[in-house]
Amino acid sequence: MMKALLIDDEKLAVMHMEKLLRELPEFDSIESYTDPAAAVEAARLSQPDVIFLDIVMPEINGMQAAEMMQQASPGSDIVFVTGYDRYAIEAFELNALDYVLKPVQRTRLAKTLTRLSGRRQEAEAPEVPAEETMVGCFKTLRPYAVPGSSEVPAFRWRTTRAQELFAYLLHHRERFVAKERLIQQFWPESPFKRASTYLYTAIYQIRQCLKQSGIHAEIVNTSGGEGYTLHLGGVVLDVDRFETGIRSLGAVTAATCARHLRLSELYIGDYLADYDYEWAEGERQRLRALQLHHASGLALFLLDSGQTAEAAAQYKKLTLLHPYSEYAHLGLLQAYAMLGDRLAVDECYRTAETLFEQELDVELPLILSQWYTSWNAGEFAGGGNVPIALRSGPN
Fold this sequence. Notes:
Helices cover 53% and strands 13% of the residues. It is of the alpha/beta class. The protein has three domains: 123 residues, Response regulator (Rossmann fold), CATH 3.40.50; 104 residues, Arc Repressor Mutant, subunit A (Orthogonal Bundle); 143 residues, Serine Threonine Protein Phosphatase 5, Tetratricopeptide repeat (Alpha Horseshoe). The radius of gyration is 25 Å and the shape is globular. Keywords: DNA-binding, Phosphoprotein, Transcription, Transcription regulation, Two-component regulatory system.
């Protein structure tokens, strides 16, 4: 049995939604509010399973209200209910469970409940064990919050050299790295004895930093003191979880889509993107290619299955991570067209024009200009069929 909380400034809309929910056996507690502030406090006290929230309210923006709800009741799923569809992309970027247009129909509500039940089952069997700790390598080097813990102390490095050495050992995790190789990489101009002292000091600083952050990885001096091996122990890297998850799940299906979406959330930026580490470039490009392939397949599945707003959110993320990918821009144009959002299509096209013609000093890719011309001519009203180029995947 589940608890629901409803917020809508229109009394009749609240009553209609409450009536629909009370007819369903899944809910044993339903609270209704027209005052967003009172609803936030109620959510804080009752911690409902799901919150049905109107986006357009006179006193507060629905997106802001959703953020307040997430802070008050982090475990609650949010379903946006509104008479307007232009907020769909922003809703899914807030990780909303669903987006339902008024007037709410029983058949549409049934789809929402299917999603809700699936997410509740996943929450009961979380993928990350409570004893697990995580280290993030996407975009920036950081420790993850441990499930069940309120906070994990951030890494506090005494020197940038110690930070890079840790990243380097993490890059070569579970593998022996010779002392001479480390010295050549980080202190090539220093005499060997002095460089050895620098290395020992940096290793000590890393161990202290990991201890302070509660990361139980271990740096072991191996081969008679001739090098080091970083053992992760119970620590998991976001890059490993991302890659292992993609390969184990296989192609995106209705049964695996939710897990693929969670995997895609791990990729917040390129591998160690915030640092100018030349030695990381090969792995950075490999993971970039993997992410592009995965996100493209996921977005196309969402597009084909009618989850157009979610698909648009995925394509939008692709254009940010891969700004020079004509495939990403084409996907976003197609998704906006299928949503019927003409303003978004025009803005997306102008952004692509500026990027290619002004920043790269090249002509806009023909596939984009041809698509836009056809769309303006009304050759596929409402978005039409998905272009063949999207099905063939990125180059």
